[in-house]
Structure formats: C-alpha cells, structure tokens
C-alpha cells in the first residue's frame, strides 16, 4: 500500500509534536515538584541572607523589612535568643521589653522545641540547615531553614510544602491544556505546511508521468529559490531535451520509413518494369521469330507473301527499337544523365512546326487540330527545344490514340505569371479518377488488355514526367466534360 508524501510528512511532524508534548507532561509531573523544591530552597537561602543583612545593618527598620520579606516571599520567620526563647514571630506588631525583643502569638507553626537545640547546634554562621518536616498539629509539611545570625540570635524560616505541590499540579494541568492546544493547532499548521511542501512535488510527479507517455506540453512554472525549484528547472530542461531528441528520432524514423517505402516501391517498380518490358517485347519477338522461321522454311513461295513477312519483321523490329530508345531516354532523364540544353526560343513556333511535321499523321487519323495562342504572337521560353518538342509530341500522340468520333485536338498557349502553360485537349472518354496518378508510370495503360491497336508502349507520359522534372516545372491532366486536357509549363522569358 502506497502512502503519499503529504501523509508521511503530516504523520512525522504531528507525531513529533505529540511525542514532545507527552514527554513534557511526563517530565512535568515527575520532576516539576522536585524542581520547585530546589528553587524554594534557593529562595529560602536568599531570604536568610537578606534577613541577616537587615538585622546586622539596619536594626531601626528591622520590623518593616521583615514584614516586607514575609509578604513578598510568603515565608514564616521566627527569631530565638540563645536560650531559645522566641523574640520575634511572623506578622506580630507588639514589642516585648528589651531591645530587639518582641513577644507574639504564634501564627506560623512552631518547630519542635525539643529538637531546636540539636538543630541549631549543627548550624554554622554561613551554612544554614535546610530540611523538610511534617507538622503534626497542622497536618502539613514544611520546608524549614535553621540559621545563625550571631552567637545570641537564631532564626527559623518555614514555608508550607502544600503551596509547592499545588503550584506543581496547577502547572501540570496548564501544560495539559496547552499541550492539547499545541497538538490541535500544530496539527492544522502541519497539515497545511505538508500540503504546501508536497504540492510542487505532486505537480512535478504529474509532469514526469506525462513525460513517460511522451507528452511534453506541461512545464513547471513556479518560481522558487530552493531545491524544488532547481528540480523543476531540471525537469523542464530534461523535458525540452527529450522532446527535441524524440522529435529528431521521429523525423529520422519517418525518413527511414520513407526510404524503406521508397526502396520497396523501387523494387516493385523494378519487378513491374521487368514484367512490362518482357510483356511488351514478347509479342514482337514472337512475331519476328514466327515470320523469320516461315521465310526460312519457305512456307509461302509467292513473292508477295515473302514481302509481307519481311515487312512484318521490319515493323516489329522498328517497334522494339523505338521502345528500347524510349527506355534509354527515360533512364537517362530519370538518373540525371541528360541535362536540359536550355535556350531561348518561341513556343508558338515550336507548336506550329510540330503540327506541320505531323500534318500527314493528323490527316490520316482524320483529326481536326487547332492552335490558340490567346493573342500572344511571340511567347518566348527558356528550355531545351528538343525535349519540349518531345513532350508536345507525346501529348499529341496520346491524344490521337484516344480520340472519339468528334476527332478534335485543340492546343493552347497561355502566359501565367512567370510561366507559360501549354495545353493539349482531345475529345474522347475521360480517364478514370483512380488512374489519373498512375498514367504517369512506365508501361501503365488505362486499357488493361494492353491493346496493340495503335502501337503505344506506355512510356510516353513517363518521359513527359521525367522531362518536366528535369526542367523543374509542373505538368498534369484534367478531365473535361467532353474530353481530356493534358498540360505542361515552361519558364517565361520576359521583356
């Protein structure tokens, strides 16, 4: 069972208060009376010295001084002559015959006369005798002092023990009441003191628990000039260092995961690439092999069939050669083996020349191709002319291969800030939304059957992506209501 620090502090300090209060009561009840006796004896010795001084040095005022001593110190006084006759007793006003002799009615209990001679015989002038005695007549104990003032005068001092005992009992009762008060009041003070001392520790413990679950938001904000304040500053510093270190570790871990994912994707792409290349080459190789074997075995003797076989072999060889060249170009672009040979030229001229070179192809497909420069007759860009021509040609080829019955291809050139945006629109079916990102991958075709109807290799858009990245420019595709729009950007040459 865990005991909180607040409970431990309260129990410890409260227990100490109770212990010292109880110890004080025990010591008071056992030693206080003895202490009072000791102090009473000292007081009686001092009284004796005072009486002796008064008697020897101020005999004219002896009555007044003795009454003053009696009143202030509460001690009974009896004087004896050398025959042990009383010449003065406490609180009497009548003088007896003869100098310094007074006859009184006894008010204080008289000592045992039979033992007076023995008692005073043991007394030296500077060493009075002190003892405790019991008076049978008054049924009470007294502290008695027997002293010798000179050879003819002796003095007896007496003080009741009951007063000492009563004073001790009153003192003990007072200590009990004050002890109870101290226990209650001290307990309240200790409770709040324990609360105040443990509050910052509890708060630090809460911060440490949050740090254990990697929550570093809370900080110790109390300003103290003690060890707890130093501990709070240390925990804040540790929290900041852990937060920074864990943040760096998370970043490094995230980068590592990205690298691992990238490696995995590269490995998947490599496998897919090999599979795609194998698939793309399998058909032309099979055709070449088949027709070559047919020629070798003279399957058809007529010249027309032999020519057809040769044309098929040449066509398939050209297709394989075209695909290999595109793969090499794509590899060189992706691995930065080719740096764009930038120059300044007019993009309008690039578009018109490309359209003019491919006019026969457009006519063969029955496509209606238009170019709109948005009123900008001379838009100059900074780029690699050959690579930009390749990007435009790939977009046009892709558009031609996906035309619908409208057979419309529109080209636009627009200036936007410090960029020129070239757009190629073709009428036809939209690209599925889930395929818009994937069409830029090598060998990806929306047509899963990989039709050879138009002889596409699936590398054209991958080459566009690589060229645009080499130029550090954007590219993209958007589905329109009646077709698809591909676009790419170039750096505008101003002024």
From TrEMBL:
Statement: the UniProt record of this protein carries the keyword Transferase: yes
GO biological process terms on file: cellular response to phosphate starvation
All copies of domain Histidine kinase, residue ranges: 276-494
HAMP domain mapped to chain residues: 195-247
Main location: membrane
GO cellular component term of the entry, any: plasma membrane
Keywords: Kinase, Membrane, Phosphoprotein, Transferase, Transmembrane, Transmembrane helix, Two-component regulatory system
TM ranges: 12-32, 174-193
UniProt keyword annotation of Phosphoprotein present: yes
Subcellular location(s) of the protein: Membrane
EC number: 2.7.13.3
Domain of life, source organism: Bacteria
Pfam families: HAMP, HATPase_c, HisKA
Catalytic activity of the protein: ATP + protein L-histidine = ADP + protein N-phospho-L-histidine
Any GO MF annotation of the entry: phosphoprotein phosphatase activity
PANTHER family named among the record's database cross-references: HISTIDINE KINASE, PHOSPHATE REGULON SENSOR PROTEIN PHOR
Protein name: histidine kinase
Organism: Ruminiclostridium cellobioparum subsp. termitidis CT1112
């Amino acid at each position: 069972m865990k005991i909180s620090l607040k409970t431990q502090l309260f129990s410890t300090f409260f227990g100490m208060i109770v212990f010292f209060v109880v110890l004080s009561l025990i010591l008071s009840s056992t030693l206080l009376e003895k202490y009072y006796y000791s102090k009473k004896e000292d007081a009686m010795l001092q009284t004796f010295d005072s009486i002796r001084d008064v008697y020897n040095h101020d005999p004219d005022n002896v009555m007044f001084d003795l009454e003053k001593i009696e009143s202030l110190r509460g001690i009974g006084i009896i004087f004896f002559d050398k025959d042990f006759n009383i010449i003065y007793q406490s609180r009497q006003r009548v003088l007896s015959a003869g100098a310094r002799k007074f006859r009184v009615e006894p008010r204080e209990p008289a000592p045992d006369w039979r033992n007076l001679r023995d008692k005073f015989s043991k007394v030296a002038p500077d060493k009075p005798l002190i003892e405790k005695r019991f008076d049978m007549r008054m049924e009470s104990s007294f502290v008695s002092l027997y002293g010798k003032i000179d050879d003819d005068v002796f003095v007896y001092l007496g003080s009741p023990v009951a007063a000492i005992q009563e004073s001790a009992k009153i003192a003990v009762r007072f200590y009990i009441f004050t002890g109870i008060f101290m226990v209650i009041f001290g307990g309240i003070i200790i409770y709040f003191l324990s609360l105040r001392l443990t509050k910052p520790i509890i708060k630090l413990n809460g911060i440490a628990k949050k740090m254990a679950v990697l929550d570093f938001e809370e900080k110790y904000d109390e300003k103290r000039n003690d060890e707890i304040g130093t501990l709070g500053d240390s925990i804040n510093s540790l929290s900041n260092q852990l937060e920074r270190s864990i943040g760096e570790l998370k970043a490094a871990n995230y980068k590592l995961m990205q690298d691992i994912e990238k490696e995995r994707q590269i490995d998947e792409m490599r496998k897919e690439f090999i599979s795609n290349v194998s698939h793309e080459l399998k058909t032309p190789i099979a055709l070449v092999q088949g027709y070559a074997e047919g020629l070798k075995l003279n399957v058809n003797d007529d010249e027309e069939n032999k020519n057809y076989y040769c044309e098929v072999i040449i066509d398939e060889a050209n297709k394989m050669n075209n695909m290999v060249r595109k793969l090499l170009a794509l590899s060189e672009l992706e691995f930065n083996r080719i740096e764009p040979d930038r120059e300044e030229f007019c993009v309008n001229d690039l578009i018109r020349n490309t359209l003019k070179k491919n006019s026969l192809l457009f006519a063969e497909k029955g496509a209606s191709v238009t170019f709109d420069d948005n009123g900008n007759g001379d838009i100059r860009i900074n780029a690699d002319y050959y690579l930009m021509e390749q990007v435009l040609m790939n977009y046009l080829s892709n558009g031609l291969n996906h035309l619908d019955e409208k057979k419309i291809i529109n080209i636009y050139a627009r200036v936007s800030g410090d960029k020129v945006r070239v757009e190629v629109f073709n009428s036809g079916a939209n690209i599925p939304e889930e395929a818009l990102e994937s069409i830029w991958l090598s060998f990806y075709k929306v047509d899963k059957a990989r039709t050879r109807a138009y002889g596409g290799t699936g590398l054209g858009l991958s080459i566009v992506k690589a060229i645009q990245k080499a130029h550090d420019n954007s590219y993209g595709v958007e589905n329109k209501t009646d077709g698809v729009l591909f676009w790419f950007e170039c750096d505008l040459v101003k002024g």
